Amino acid sequence: MSNPPHIPLKARKVSFSWEGTPLHWVPGDPFTSHTINVLHLLLPAGERWFVHVYKQVLPYIRDERLRADVVGFIGQEAMHSQAHDEVLPHLRELGLDPTPYTAQLDWLFEKVLGDRFPLPGRRARTWWLMERVAVIAAIEHYTAFLGDWILNAPELDRRGADPTMLDLLRWHGAEEVEHRSVAFDLFTHVDGGYRRRVRTWLTGLLTMVFLWQRGVRFFMANDPAPNLPKPTFRDFYVRGKRGLLPSSRAMARSVPRYLARGYHPSQEGSTEQAVAYLASSPAAVAADRRAA
Question: Residue 38: pLDDT band by 50, 70, 90 thresholds?
């Protein structure tokens, strides 16, 4: 497989208007809407954490092109965090206050995964920094997977999903595909140990699954609509089969790819497709016009 073209990364200062977006933005399907709505809670805290960690690792980078990619990555992730954060006031206006859940996420990323480490000394701090760099590489494997999925999810369009929400998700997904190699290349550059890759992949996966299912349960329990059922794995599986969410099979097949010793993120998704969407995304086009 040929390597995708190298494209300098830039942050697109997008903005979205949420006045017309309903809470159940996939009509008649609260479960699908809320499964994806969890991103608005997870991503701001998580991507602020990415930026914080990467600013600390910049002095360890000895390759100028990689450094430029990491700086571009930082800019894009900061913009992703801001864009999803701006959805939260709209959720409150619709009767769903996400504060109890977002407070727990902030505690996780700032305290549990923050800079404080129980062992003193520079060696321990460096070890903890490299652990977090490896965790981010593992998480970015799945954000690229999700980005590729949302760019190729026409069933959401057929079901009449809100176009503003779809543009937010696809703009974000396209940038995840665009910068999908940066986190792994950085991890390889500063460490690259296979044992660390496997260990942190498991940590990242279990954390994401736990937080995501907890977030879906939070949304469904606090939705102002009456008598919503408790979410189940079968709900996820069925919607994956219908193309409304990523399929369980596709997610399972992504695991051995990341764990293969010869893995590289360039094997995932299509840079050309991502760049094409960014050239047509209403929010990204408007951002480019404002920048010009």
Answer: very high
